[in-house]
Specification:
The longest helix is centred in the middle third of the chain and has 25 residues. This protein is of the alpha/beta class. Helix 3 crosses helix 4 and helix 6 runs parallel beside helix 8. Helix content is 40%, strand content 24%. Strand 6 and strand 7 form a beta hairpin. The chain has nine helices and 14 strands. The chain has an eight-stranded mixed sheet with strand order 5-8-2-1-11-13-14-12, with helices on both faces.
């Protein structure tokens, strides 16, 4: 689509009040899914984050890396097993998780940010004792080295932001119960980091448009959901499956004091900028 110079100027002026709203405040973005696989989407996400940082918004990026972990396990002939949506993490898998998340995936994102003129520092939950955890125990299943967060210390994240860098965080945690390392669900970790940072916004990138009344019809997107409506939406089946824990994370973030939270479609190019710096927004926003 062709945009005249006047159209471009209108878009920039539309963004101004939102830049003023978020300038000096913190936004936590959880990055995963298809947006981490598709090269064009990956470039757009990184560009969005660097632009937000350049206009004075404190950007914290928390990332997953499930497909790359699965690929590496496949290479060594190890099976990927999931229980209730969580990766069963045995002795072999925890080594791969730490190597891929805190190593390859994390440093690739840092490199991409810096290649377009941004400044970034790669961190994992072990650094500075940022994320501490114990073995997840639901009384039924054994998840292996999957952890449940017991504490969050964002001192190292704040120090990184103060120096003008974008913190890029992988969710490998420090064990406090005798096990050295735990694999942590990135959605949960990102929400808790957003709370600890007192973030103005928590954005969860997914592979769906948002919450839809009919999952087969994207025109049924619900743009705004009040958290006291969520139980009824779960009972009616509108919110189900893998969307439940993501929405629970958004609710936890809101109840923890985060300004507002949203689930947006990471398959849409520049979805972060559309959500944060335009009148239209995108996806589903959750409010109290």
């Amino acid at each position: 689509m062709f945009l005249s110079n006047m159209d471009k100027a209108k878009l920039l002026t539309q963004a101004l009040p939102y830049i003023q709203k978020y300038r000096g405040k913190t936004v936590v973005v959880k990055y995963g899914g298809n947006a981490m696989i598709n090269e064009g989407l990956k470039e757009a996400v990184i560009t969005d984050l660097v632009l937000l940082s350049c206009v004075g918004i404190n950007v914290v990026l928390v990332h997953g890396g499930g497909p790359e972990i699965t690929d590496m396990l496949n290479r060594i002939g190890a099976e990927s097993k999931f229980i209730n949506g969580l990766r069963y993490t045995d002795d072999t898998a925890i080594e791969i998780v730490q190597m891929v998340l805190a190593g390859k995936t994390n440093k690739d994102l840092v490199n991409r940010i810096q290649n377009i003129g941004g400044k970034a520092v790669g961190l994992c939950g072990i650094d500075g004792g940022m994320i501490k955890a114990v073995k997840l125990d639901d009384g039924v299943n054994d998840y292996g080295y999957v952890g449940e967060i017991t504490s969050i210390d964002v001192s190292v994240v704040k120090d990184t932001l103060d120096k003008g860098y974008i913190p890029v965080i992988s969710t490998v945690a420090m064990g406090t119960d005798g096990n050295p390392v735990y694999n942590i669900n990135a959605d949960i970790a990102a929400a808790k980091i957003a709370v600890a940072m007192g973030a103005a916004n928590f954005i969860l990138l997914t592979d769906v448009k948002g919450v839809m009344r009919d999952v087969k019809d994207e025109d049924t997107l619900i743009p705004v959901v009040q958290i006291d409506e969520i139980d009824e939406l779960k009972k009616s089946g509108v919110i189900s499956g893998g969307m439940i824990p993501k929405i629970d994370c958004c609710v936890d973030a809101l109840n923890g004091g985060v300004g507002h939270t949203c689930i947006i479609d990471g398959r849409i190019i520049h979805s972060i900028l559309i959500e944060m710096l335009s009148d239209e927004g995108i996806g589903t926003m959750f409010i109290k």
